Amino acid sequence: MYVIQERFFDIGEDFDVLDDHGRKVLHVDGKVLSLRDRLVVEDPSGREVASVYRKLIALRPTYQIEIGGEEAAEVRKKLFTPLRDKFTIDVPGPDDLEMSGDLFDREFTVERGGREVATVSKRWLSIRDSYAVNIAQGENHLLILCAVLALELALQRERDND
């Protein structure tokens, strides 16, 4: 399980992603005031391991994830999904992921081929303004955490536009 602050984009400050023992596993350098809403994800030693940024030319909210300097996924909001928000995590090749749920309350699942591979929930945490990300064993934890960050960037942009 990982813990991410819920409202980190309201301020645009840096923050840490913690494991279930409270240890820092990632540091996120929030550059949300940049044109592309860019985040730099670093390991605990300060080495950049991934980045998340908004694609400027896209018909719908789209965010690019790079891991190790290479394109790892594109996160796109699906259009016309009543009652639930849905996002596609398009990875190179097959095995794309789908995020769906009540994103206003940060309760959603990540699935691959109809099988749940991760959940995001505020329900189980007593830490204010934080939520838990549980990822199945054998999944790419960094990719899924970056997809959650992309989702948060997209939702913050929507809130800012409203």
What labels describe this entry?
162 residues; mainly beta; Porin; 12-stranded antiparallel β-barrel; 13% helix; globular
For this structure, what is the CATH homologous superfamily?
LURP1-related
Sheet with most strands: 12 strands, antiparallel, barrel
Quaternary state of the chains: single chain
Distance between the ends: 32 Å
H-E order = EEEEEEEEEEEEH
Q: What portion of residues belong to β-strands? A: over 45%
Radius of gyration: 15 Å
Q: Which structural category fits the helices and strands?
A: mainly beta
Count of helical regions: 1
**Tally of DSSP β-strands:** 12
* CATH fold assignment: Porin
Main sheet strand line-up: 1-2-3-4-5-6-7-8-9-10-11-12
Explain this structure to me?
There is one protein chain. Helix content is 13%, strand content 46%. The chain contains one helix and twelve strands, in the order ββββββββββββα. β9 and β10 form a beta hairpin. The chain is globular. The chain starts with a strand and ends with a helix.
Summarize the SSE layout with pairings.
Elements: E1 2-5, E2 15-19, E3 24-31, E4 38-42, E5 48-54, E6 62-67, E7 70-77, E8 85-90, E9 97-102, E10 107-112, E11 115-121, E12 130-135, H1 141-161
Antiparallel strand pairs: 1-2, 1-12, 2-3, 3-4, 4-5, 5-6, 6-7, 7-8, 8-9, 9-10, 10-11, 11-12
Provide a concise account of the structure shown.
This protein has 162 residues and is mostly beta strands.
